[in-house]
Amino acid sequence: MSKIFNRVCPFCGLAVDAGISGCLLPWALRCPCGAVAFGSPDPAKAVDAMIAHYGVCASAGHGDVHASTGWMKDFHIRTEDGGRSVEMPGSVIVAWRWFLRELPWEKPAGPMSDRDRLEWLTKQAEKFYELMYDSTRPGFEFRESKEAFEDAITLAWKLGLGDEAERLTKRLAHVKAVYAKQFEGF
Ligand SMILES: [Zn+2]
């Protein structure tokens, strides 16, 4: 027996009531923490709704996206079975699944010196640049990458690291050019 869907977000513990409009499915909830729950009589459709919602683009290397959930890790998506509910009209049995796409800005481990922060910002900038290629809405990843580069450049100048600031400036120009050429319009 599958458990009963109780609307409690498995990631933060809140009871969730807010729906999401414009989804592929009528059974869709959103938690303030960013998690979403999709339900459908056909579990594969909940996965399809999540793919559309987050705009992720699984590649051939990910295999059958309905067969397993392991591929979601590549997109920083956590998932939990939500159980089942009985929905009217018609007493339809709906299978629910929770998803949470975590903001991929890595949390710093603790207080950082300016040098640590520069390194951290550079790492975030490069990571978002890479994620741009996996996204069907790369505008998000592009903006985050650009922001991290800009902060890193400002900080590098402040630290008197002119060479590093110039390297980062060139790198940002490259990222902007790639985005303009390959992705703009998404
Ligand atoms: Zn939550």
Overview of this protein structure:
The protein is of the alpha+beta class and 186 residues long. The protein folds into two domains: 27-101; 114-183. Helices cover 39% and strands 16% of the residues. The chain contains four helices and four strands, in the order E-E-H-E-E-H-H-H. It has helices at residues 43-54, 114-132, 139-158, 162-183, and strands spanning 27-30, 36-40, 77-87, 92-101. A four-stranded antiparallel sheet has the order 1-2-4-3, covered by helices on one side. Strand 1 and strand 2 (36-40) form a beta hairpin. Helix 2 packs antiparallel against helix 3 (139-158) and helix 3 packs antiparallel against helix 4 (162-183). The mean pLDDT is 88. It binds zinc ion.
How would you describe this structure in keywords?
186 residues; alpha+beta; four-stranded antiparallel beta sheet; 4 helices; 4 strands; binds zinc ion
